[in-house]
From TrEMBL:
Residues 456-553 form the Fibronectin type-III domain. Keywords: Disulfide bond, Glycoprotein, Membrane, Receptor, Repeat, Signal, Transmembrane, Transmembrane helix. SMART domains: FN3 (SM00060). InterPro entries: FN3_dom (IPR003961), FN3_sf (IPR036116), Hematopoietin_rcpt_Gp130_CS (IPR003529), Ig-like_fold (IPR013783), Type1_Cytokine_Rcpt_Type2 (IPR052672). This is Interleukin-31 receptor subunit alpha-like. Its main location: membrane. It comes from Poecilia reticulata.
């Protein structure tokens, strides 16, 4: 009982679910059946009367900027079609009218959104009109096609896809057709953007491709394509316009390239490269092609819109090509080589070793701990200046790999560098991608056969030469001249004597050294030096002999230095006062009369003349005084000595003549005055000491001037003395001047003594 109840409940439940599924299935079928109706709900077709329809749209005109290029053709049997192109300002909604006059058949299709319509023709003649924009508006446009069912030609095209490609100075056009159109030769017409006339049509020699030449690289072109008419394609409409941008003729300019080791990932580095393109707004992006210098595939092409790229690469050498591109051309590539990175931590640290068997085989060894984690490896080996070779392999048992049957044999005396890379993929050891695909395990170097160096260190120079030492410097031997691993340098030096021999010395230094401090040398000695390098195969050639000489030994006395120091110190301390004292004795300073108070009080020309006369008398006085001093120091002057001095009288006569000339200059030219002068001279010669014009002061001329000035007779209370006549005091002055001359005329003055007094 209970069992039947359970079965009944299960049956009811089953029927309930079946009813539900039935309803859902019916609704789904209805949606599928009526979906086309809902999809084309906006497109409607109705019959029309030719006269009424023509009157309804007769206000719509044919305009070049409106709907145009209406064409009706036959693709194949019973497949007729009309196509057109929209206007510049169209609403992309069309009205399609088909009229067949023989049967008075008229059909109107509204709200068509695609620029094509299938054509169903019953009569021979027909007319098609396509109206764009709202048909009821005044600015609507239309296109008209009239034809016959017999005259409809089979049309091929336009092409389904067009791919224009700019070449240097040209354009290559590749097309594809619909399946029913087949493959056809094509014709291409073109014009520069902005031009309204088409250039000549170029017809292709091969199907589906054409070549246009002699284009200007900097211009943008408009291109149209059509098929070449044949018996199978009697009608070939032109395609729509395809715009071909200007040709990219300049290459990108590299700005910076940075290589940074990634600490979290051993054996990898971050490559950051930036560039710029000199022409703006003519490219769509950049293409970066990356591949390994060893030639291992693939060549990965990356696309970026920014002028920069970041890659995670191993320590291997890579090459990058960077180009700008647009939809028609690709610029020349800028090439950048990423050199192989040699990390001091992995080069020659023992983790990778090489055993050379012969010129076609060698074995690499690495630590076995890598086997637990990696099974895919690649080994690269190369010589300097070459791209190198590679071998990728799978190894999960032993930590070594023998590379054999090398196509290019290993050369003797040539250094090779071998590198082992690890790849995390286990499915295949071939590299799928360049970026972030491997890491470097280790690097080492080897020779197939070593030899001694064929080159010597160059640029041997000497610096910091002293009495017994010098610093020796040189340049390393080029790698191509080593022919083996350099183990060190040998420095040979001997004393250099002319036609004499001396003991040779040699010193060995490390291979990384380029300088050496030579010590324990002899002072003032010339040395001849040569340097050579050596490898496991032996010593190489020596460098050209270089000669240097140590500084000579200089005898140095401490006592002499102390004495010189004392003399210099004494001169600095006591030299200045002694020099001043000697100068005062030898070159005494003569007072300048121009600085005296008497000169400052001169107020008339007569006083100035009087002062000039007194200055002359003062000079004579000083000369006579020096002469008397000399005579007093002499004990007795013999008469023979006096007779040897004839020039004394001459000097006296000269003095008298000078005094007489002075008198004449003042206007005294009479004979009476000359007699008076002679009388005064005789009187003053015997009674000079009783003269009223004797002065005790040192500046005698100034005292005389001050005593004589008040004796002048002033006229009318004026300060200006009368010089029309000759005052009595002036005559006395003349006599006094001659007294000076006669008083001290026994000793003539020298030119050096008399001349300064007159200045």
């Amino acid at each position: 009982m209970s069992g039947r109840g359970v079965q009944s409940g299960e049956a009811e439940t089953k029927y309930c679910w079946l009813g539900t599924y039935t309803h859902v299935l019916v609704v789904g079928l209805m949606l599928v059946l009526y979906a086309p109706i809902f999809t084309h709900v906006h497109v409607s077709a109705e019959k029309c009367k030719p006269k009424n329809i023509s009157t309804k749209y007769q206000h719509c005109g044919i305009h070049p900027d409106g709907v145009h290029n209406l064409d009706c053709f036959r693709k194949f049997k019973n497949d007729n079609k009309c196509t057109w192109e929209s206007g510049k300002h169209g609403s992309k909604s069309y009205t399609f009218i088909l009229q067949q006059a023989d049967r008075s058949h008229c059909v109107v299709n509204y709200n068509i959104t695609k620029p094509s319509r299938k054509l169903i023709i019953y009569d021979l003649n027909f007319t098609v009109e396509v109206i764009e924009n709202n048909a009821g508006m005044a600015n609507c446009t239309k296109a008209v096609f009239s034809g016959s069912k017999k005259t409809l030609k089979r049309s091929c095209g336009p092409p389904n896809e067009v791919l224009p490609t700019r070449t240097p100075g040209g354009l290559q056009v590749n097309v594809t057709w619909l399946r029913e159109d087949g493959s056809n030769k094509i014709s291409v017409r073109y014009r520069a953007l902005g031009s309204h006339s088409w250039n000549e049509t170029v017809e292709s020699q091969l199907p589906n491709t054409a070549m246009v030449e002699k284009l200007t690289p900097s211009l943008v072109y408009v291109v149209q394509i059509q098929c070449v008419t044949t018996a199978e394609c009697t009608q070939c409409p032109w395609s729509k316009n395809y715009y071909v941008p200007s040709e990219l003729t300049t290459r990108p300019i590299l700005v910076s390239a940075k290589y940074t080791d990634i600490t979290q990932k051993t054996g990898c580095r971050l490559i950051s490269i930036t560039w710029k393109f000199p022409v703006k707004d003519v490219y769509d992006g950049y293409r970066v092609t990356v591949w390994k210098e060893s030639g291992e595939p693939p060549q990965e092409q990356l696309t970026t819109s920014e002028p920069a790229i970041r890659l995670t690469l191993s320590y291997s050498a890579y090459r990058l090509n960077i180009s700008a591109y647009n939809n028609a051309s690709v610029s020349p590539a800028a090439t950048h080589v990423i050199p192989q990175h040699t990390d001091a931590n992995i080069l020659g640290d023992g983790r990778l070793n090489v055993t050379v068997h012969n010129s076609t085989a060698f074995t690499i060894h690495w630590r076995p701990d890598r086997i637990r984690k990696y099974v895919c490896y690649v080994v690269e080996w190369m010589k300097q200046g070459h791209s190198g070779w590679y071998l990728s392999f799978f190894e999960d048992a032993i930590a070594r790999k023998t590379v054999s049957s090398i196509q290019e044999h290993l050369e003797p005396y040539t250094r090779y560098r071998v590198t082992l890379h690890l790849r995390p993929n286990k499915n295949t050891c071939n590299m799928k991608h360049i970026n972030n695909s491997e890491s470097t395990y280790g690097t080492t170097e080897f020779y197939h056969t070593e030899g001694s160096p064929v080159g010597a260190p160059a640029n041997v120079t000497f610096h910091n030469v002293t009495l017994n030492s010098a610093v020796l410097q040189w340049s390393q031997i080029p790698e191509e001249d080593l022919r083996g691993f350099l183990l060190g340098y040998i420095i040979y030096y001997t004393e250099h004597h002319y036609q004499e021999t001396s003991t040779a010395h040699n010193i060995t230094v490390d291979p990384g050294s380029t300088s050496f401090h030579m010590e324990a040398l002899k002072s003032g000695t010339a040395y001849q030096v040569q340097i050579s390098g050596f490898t496991l195969a032996g010593e190489g050639i020596r460098s050209i002999s270089s000669v240097f000489k140590t500084d000579p030994k200089v005898n140095f006395s401490i006592r002499g230095a102390i004495a010189a120091f004392v003399v210099v110190a004494c001169l600095l301390v006591f030299g200045s006062p002694v020099i001043k004292r000697v100068k005062a004795i030898l070159w005494p300073r003569v007072p300048n009369p121009g600085h005296s108070n008497a000169v400052q009080k001169i107020e008339s020309p007569g006083q100035l003349k009087l002062l000039e006369a007194l200055v002359t008398l003062k000079a004579v006085e000083e000369w006579d005084t020096k002469s008397f001093q000399i005579l007093e120091r002499e004990a007795v002057i013999p008469s023979q000595t006096l007779s040897m001095l004839p020039h004394v009288r001459t000097c006296e006569d000269d003095s008298l003549e000078m005094a007489h000339a002075w008198s004449e200059r003042d206007g005294d030219s009479t004979a009476d005055n000359d007699d008076t002068t002679n009388t005064l001279l005789d009187t003053q010669r015997t009674h000079f000491q009783s003269s009223p014009f004797t002065f005790a002061g040192g500046y005698t001329t100034m005292e005389m001037f001050q005593q004589l000035t008040p004796q002048w007779t002033m006229e009318g209370g004026s300060n200006t003395p009368s010089i029309e006549g000759e005052p009595e005091d002036f005559t006395v002055l003349k006599s006094m001047r001659l007294d000076y001359v006669r008083q001290f005329s026994t000793s003539p003055p020298s030119d050096s003594e008399f001349t300064p007094a007159l200045v």
